[in-house]
Design brief:
This protein is mainly β. It folds into 2 domains: 41 residues, N-terminal domain of TfIIb, CATH 2.20.25; 53 residues, Roll (SH3 type barrels), CATH 2.30.30.40. Helix content is 7%, strand content 25%. The chain contains 1 helix and 9 strands, in the order βββαββββββ. The protein starts with 15 loop residues before the first strand and ends with a strand.
Length: 112
């Protein structure tokens, strides 16, 4: 079996190398296998101090965060338990006592 990659666009097995990249003769897609591997790698979520966060971690809010529609902000020092990591700009889903379910940015929390 050969080690040539399939086209990430159309999954064709007829791809051929063109120097540092690969080309698909069926759909015309050209790609760099290293860039495709980097895109497919799992995203690493880090807190404000650079610590890697994982599902189920406990974090502490490091800055007062205003909440749209709420009369008061989430205060700095609020502990959030059992976070879930998601994709997107607000990459933490959690429940905060007194506020309910919300999404937070990882740059505003630190690992507890």
């Amino acid at each position: 079996m050969s080690d040539q990659p399939n086209c990430p666009n159309c999954k064709s097995s007829f791809a051929y190398p063109t120097g540092t990249s690969w080309m698909c003769p069926e759909c015309g897609h050209e790609w760099n296998p290293e860039e495709v591997a980097a895109e497919n790698a799992a995203a690493v979520v880090k807190d404000a101090n650079g610590n890697v966060l994982q599902d189920g971690d406990d974090v502490v809010v490091v800055k007062d965060l205003p909440v749209k529609g709420a009369p008061k902000p989430v205060k700095a020092g609020t502990k959030v338990k059992n976070i879930r990591l998601t994709d997107g700009d607000h990459n933490i889903d959690c429940k905060i006592d007194g506020f309910g379910s919300m999404a937070l940015k990882s740059i505003y929390v630190k690992k507890a």
